Amino acid sequence: MSNLESSPVLRLRVSQTAESILRSGHPWLFSDSIREQNRTGQAGDLAVIYDRKDQFLGMGLFDPEGPIRVRMLHVGKPQKLDHAWWQKHLTAILDRRRNLFDAETNGYRLCNGENDGWPGLILDRYDSTLVLKIYTTAWTPRLEEIVDIIDEQFPCERIILRLSRNIQDKSSPYTEGQIIRGKPLLEPVIFMESGLRFEVDVVRGQKTGFFLDQRENRRLVELLSQGRRVLNAFSFSGGFSLYAARGGAVSVTDLDISPHALSAANRNFELNLDQPAIASCHHETVKADAFDWLDSAAPASFDLIILDPPSLAKRESEREQAIGAYGRLTRSAIKLLRPGGILVACSCSAHVSTEEFLGSVREAATESTREFKELQITAHPADHPATFPEAHYLKAIYLRF
Predict the structure, then answer these.
(1) Is residue 199 situated within a structural domain?
(2) Helix, strand or coil, per DSSP, at residue 143
(3) Of 371, 345, 368, which is closest to residue 358 (Cα–Cα)?
(4) Residues facing residue 80 across a β-bridge
(5) Are 111 and 156 found together in one domain?
(6) Is residue 66 predicted with pLDDT exceeding 90?
(7) Are 322 and 349 spatial neighbours (Cβ–Cβ below 8 Å)?
(8) What are the two backbone dihedrals, phi and then psi, of residue 305, each rounded to the nearest 5 degrees?
(9) Domain membership flag for residue 206
(10) pTM to 2 decimals?
(11) Residue 6: what pLDDT?
């Protein structure tokens, strides 16, 4: 990357508070924490940060436009950011996943951004296709070399690039959904999770195409589904539903407002009809707004309900509204549960804390006047580590009524 580091080193000095935050391991340096800057920085410049005593503090990737001005790569003693450095760090990231999955699961997260030391970069595996998603233009000047290193260490048929919405028009020469390495995509990508087959839209699908982070919750739902009538609200492509069907559910209803998502759920069921429990489970889809449908559905219709909405608070200003929405969903769902029924309530809203989410669900459960028991609370799976406060977005609670 000599061409990237040919300009004078971009030197930054930051506020005393920011020094402490960075030393504690937080991976973000915000623009309003920068006190001195020796030159105008370009996207992808290596920013070297010095403390008040003019001592090296750390280094990271510079983003001249985002509120997160530097994504930290290293804090501590000076290091040389060369090809060998990137190789070594990718090896460490892959080693952390090496024994997490058996041959029946070939879809999982290989790199979880900041939490794996590569801030703003996600790498997901779907069988022989890798999806690389970046959330900052700071990565675009380095993509070619990063892709080379990924290809060296994790050979695959292709690597597809996904760009977060805020950088899609700023990432030239790269475009959203392009194949940046390997073979053209001539048919749908199909991967396995816990022995179930799933089709994934790696080019246009949400996130990188599938919600890999809910794998462990899907496995728990399978264990709870024997003989139950199951409702999967905000079903997307039917992940929870397939696990429930294999677990012995009598029926499964997928509820989603997107016809595209429901079609994907039907295709995923078809991919797994060779499994007797899935073939014998009655599967239906309902296209509707989940909030409205839950309010109007017949009481006591289901034995297991999964509430897994998309993020209800994409920014801090939406936090209070989201907390109220989680309560509303919980109240509506409880009315639809038969005696002995189980509610699985999930949140992926980073702006709503675990305590706030659990409090909203528990309050709604208490207001129902039905006796209930908390069975379990879950968070991030092992391939989605969360190493700093803002990274803790995923939480779920299991209640039996």
Answers:
(1) no
(2) helix
(3) 345
(4) none
(5) yes
(6) no
(7) yes
(8) -125, 130
(9) no
(10) 0.95
(11) 56
Domain count, the chain: 3
Does the pLDDT at position 65 exceed 50?
yes
Asked if the structure places residue 288 within a domain, the reply is yes
Cα dist. 366→33, 227, 323, 345 in Å? 44, 27, 16, 15
How does the average pLDDT of the chain come out, rounded? Answer: 96
Tens digits of residue pLDDT in 252-292: 999 999 999 999 999 999 999 999 999 999 999 999 999 99
Place of tokens 């937080």: 26
Q: What is the mean pLDDT of residues 123-146?
A: 97
For residues 379 and 293, state if they share a domain.
yes
Q: How far apart are CA 132 and CA 179, in angstroms?
A: 10
Q: Is the distance from CB of 308 to CB of 233 less than 8 angstroms?
A: yes
Same domain, 64 and 136: no
pLDDT, tens digit, for every residue of 100-129? 999 999 999 999 999 999 999 999 999 999
pLDDT at 7: 65
The Cα–Cα gap between 252 and 240 comes to 9
How long is the chain? 401
Residue type, 186: L
Q: What was the pLDDT predicted at 35?
A: 95
Whole-angstrom distance, CA of residue 399 vs CA of residue 378? 12
> At 271, which CATH number?
3.40.50.150
Please give the residue range of the domain that contains residue 141.
Answer: 83-189
One domain for residues 63 and 89: no
Q: Which long-range contacts (CB under 8 A, 24 or more apart) does 1-6 make?
A: 1/81, 1/82, 1/83, 1/142, 1/145, 4/44, 4/45, 4/46, 4/141, 4/142, 5/46, 5/81
Give yes or no: residues 301 and 219 share one domain: yes
Give me the mean pLDDT over the 34-40 stretch.
95
Same domain (yes/no): 139, 169: yes
Q: Does the residue 200 lie in any domain? A: no
pLDDT digits (tens, 9 = 90+) for 8-36: 799 999 999 999 999 999 999 999 999 99
For residues 70 and 111, state if they share a domain.
Answer: no
Q: How far is CA 39 from the centre of its chain?
A: 35
